[in-house]
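Bench notes, afternoon.
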Amino acid sequence: MRLQTISDNPSGFTSKNISEIIELVERAGIIKTVVELRPIGNIKG
């Protein structure tokens, strides 16, 4: 079995759905979600 590295995935971490990861870690009992923040804009400079 070969472990997948970041370089194996061309999109890197951006392809991961953070909501699914948070839900999984919360169900495992590692964290407790207390608030969810959502961006309302983006500033490019």
